[in-house]
Structure formats: C-alpha cells, structure tokens
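2024-03-11 09:14:02 DEBUG pipeline.ingest accepted 1 chain
2024-03-11 09:14:02 DEBUG pipeline.ingest length=460
2024-03-11 09:14:03 DEBUG pipeline.predict start
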Amino acid sequence: MASTKKKPDNPVINVAVVGHTNTGKTSLIRTLLRDDRFGKIDDAAGTTRSVEKSVVYAGDEAVLNLFDTPGFEDSSALLLALEALSKTVEVKSPAQLLREFISQAQRYPDFEQEIKVLRQSLKSDVLLYIIDVREPLLGKYSDEVEILSKAGKPILPVFNFIAGNSESLARWREQMTRFNLHAALEFDTVAFDFEAEKRLYQKLQSLLEKHYDTLQTLIDYRQEVWHNLVHAGAQRIFQLLAEVACFRQEVESRDGIADADVASIQNFVRKAEQRALQDLLTIFAFTQVDIELQQIAVRDGQWELDIFSPHALKDFGLNAGARALAGAAAGAGIDLMVGGISLGAATALGAALGAGWATLRRYQKELAALWRGHKWLCVDDDTLSLLYLRQRQLLHTLTRRGHAAQSSIHLSDRVDHALPEGWHKVIKTLRQHPEWQAGTSTSAEYRQIQAEVIKWLTDD
C-alpha cells in the first residue's frame, strides 16, 4: 500500500496518555498498536514507572507519538503542593507554575512519578485522560483533572472498561462536563471496537484542527488496514471450508465403512482446523500464549471442545440428534450426478455412456473406484456446518478482542448461529470440485462462491 506523504508543516502529533494508576493507559496503547508486548500490565498499582514512547504510523509515515506515563498516586497532596508553591513564586500562567514545580523536583521526592507526568504533559499536543468507569467518583480524580488542566493542553477523557457499566459511565460523563470536558470518548481496551478507535482520531481532529488532514490520513489508512485484516481472516476461513469440503477419500465399501476410515477423516478435519486457527491468530497479531477465548473453548491455541464432541452440534444450535457427528463420513458418499444419473444408482458403464466423454474424463477416478467396488467418502454436512459456525464465531471474537485483554473473553449473546441462506448449495458445489481443494482455482464459479462466503463472514 502506498503511503501518503505529510506536508512538512504537519509534524508528528505528541499524545500524552495520562490518568490514575491502573486505569488502562498501557492497555490503550497496546490496543492501538495491536501489540500485546508493549509495556507491562499488572493488577498492582504503579506498574508503569517511567515515560515510554511508541509510534502510530500511516504507511511509512509517523503520525502519533504515544507517551505512556506513570499513574497519579496522590493527586490531592500534589495539588496542595502546587497551591503552596504558587504563594511563594511569581508566575504568569498555570503552565509556568508547573514548570517551576518541575524545576524544583528535588524538593518533592514524594512526587517523582507525578513530575514525569507533568513534564510530558507540557511537551505534548494533547492529553488522553484515561478513566476506569468502574471506580467511584472520588475527589482525587477531580484534583487530577485540575492539575492536568494547568498544562494548557486539550484534554480528551477516555472512558475505559465500559462493558456492563452503563450507569457508572453516565455518572463519569456528567462529572467531566462539570470541567467543561464535553468531548469524551468510550474506548474499551479489552472489548475492542474498531469504530471506537476511529472516533478517537476524529475527536483528536476536533481538538487539533491544524492536524486535521494528517489525522484524516491516519483514519483512512487504519480503516483500510482493518478492512484488509478482516477480509484476510474471512478468506482464510473460506480456504479451510474449501479444503475440507473438497476432501475425498477412497475406501472399500463391500463391508461398510471401517472405523479407521472415519478416524482418518476426523483427523484430517482436526488438523485443517488447527492450521486455520494458527493463521487467524497470526493475522490479528495474537499468540497461542496470551489468548484464552472461553466461550468458544480455545485455550493455548487449541480447541478445547473437539469438533467431534457429542456436545459440539448442540452448543452451536445444530441438530445434535441427527447423527451427532458419529462418523463424520458415515453415509456421506459423494453423490455425483453424471448425465442426470447418480453413480450410486447406476452401473459405471451405463453412467459413463450416458454422460459422454467430457464427463467421463472429469469423473474417471470416481468411476474407477465404483468399478472396483469402492466409493469416495467426504466430510458430511453437519461437520461442515459446525466448522463454518465455529470459525465465524472465532472471527467475530478476534475482531472484538483488545490486545490488552488478559482474561477469558465472553462472547455476546447476540452472536447469530443461523446458517446463511444458500449454505448447503455452496457445500454441495464445493464437494463436486475436488480440484478446488488447494485454494488456487481461478474459475469464475470458485471466485463467486469465495466472495459469497466471505460476505457471509464479514457482514456482521
């Protein structure tokens, strides 16, 4: 993707991420960077002890310098110290008072971390004030806002941990308006929403008008990157579905289907799904180590709930009573329609003669198998349907998981488990084209099916 060159008079925007200890400052930066290795996250207070810089790019161009700062620990005492200093020195502005306070840092060893925050705030273009809405409205937070406002920089309150805390969020919004901070943002660093990230940049546009075009470049770039990520994830899922739906295994059919044949097909499906899972984690910059998706039973990169578990169909709203995936391939012999006559209902010779040479060449392996008394098995409808639903739910979850998430994620109850209209027609078509298994076909029919499945996966 070609990067957009910024004008020389649009320098990189310096953003100080500030707030109380353990409100999610480092978490916000991790999410914006799509990097769960940035900084250190811990439940203990004061995890960040120094100012750490990271950069957000649009292509090759740096747009934002994000400065992760230590958290305020005793803002009330700091405010009293600033008020006391203001009575002993002559300053022309609140910002000058902060500079004077910083210049006398040796006199205030108890405020070592806060002084780092003040120093970075004065050097930044805008302050992102991160608020954990689960916290009660205490005076120390009002003191923090009053102190930060002395830097004379725009302040954008960012409400974190908003999921399930609507009443607390409303109280915090009201509190911020009392400080004339009407431009605020809801941004949950754990339950990620790309639209919230886009609104963050749009809020910055309103606060930093001279950087409007630069930020628009960033918005457009991040939008395109996100679209490409989601599309790549959906495309990888389609590749998995095609790989499994197009799979065929020739078996002897005189004495029924052997358990070993069923086990072989099940093993193929499991391994194919595991490869897809690894690729999806990589696409969205997650790792096996740090992801734990409880509701879809993914732990350490492995499906905890096996796709052939008796409960798998029921958990995804499918008809568990039909076959319960007992064999994956039981009764799933390919029904090849040759000249309008099913190979399962005619002799190989009769079917071949009725079909003509073109069809004979296309199905020569199947005809040969039937002539030998063998048949070709494939993965049944139930397994393919469950595979699709599991992967769609995984995609849904990965696009909504922030890179600061540390615990199990709970999927929304609104996740739709219904199969799309036309689903069974698609898998029937895929089964009839084993040559598509490699995912390299350039035929118009293959591309049409691929586009249809990707649309199903990305519509929500």
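2024-03-11 09:14:41 DEBUG pipeline.report Residues 236-333+378-458 form one domain.
2024-03-11 09:14:41 DEBUG pipeline.predict end
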